[in-house]
Amino acid sequence: MATQAFDQETFAQAIEDNDTVIVDFWADWCGPCKRFAPVFDDASDKHPDVVFGKVDTEDQRALAGGLGIQSIPTLMAFRGGYLVYREAGAMSGPQFEELVKAVKALDIEKLKEQANAQQEGAEA
Predict the structure, then answer these.
(1) Which residues does this entry assign to the site Contributes to redox potential value (predicted)?
(2) Which of 34, 52, 107, 110 is deepest in the core (most CB within 10 A)?
(3) Which domains occur in the chain, in start order?
């Protein structure tokens, strides 16, 4: 699946509608972002079961600001609607491939149980 450009609406919809979503926050002036772009695009071709999205932080300032993006590139990964990874910095191809595999391997039911337990603990 090709990489998709996300705005505020499509970002939220992608997370809601898909099991696994990985998002790259970037800007055209960012050298590390430009070097990482082919790695991200290659992974999107290798993993058609994952939605790969890009957010241009210059064009989507409200979205990036609302998510507290302070450094780029920043990667976020979601499984079953839950944020499971967030880190600033570019990765090599092999590093990113390992991340994608790790995110896909997460047990979604276990994630839900942990999230519910944390929420119940916070309400107590």
Answers:
(1) 31-32
(2) 52
(3) 4-123 (3.40.30.10)
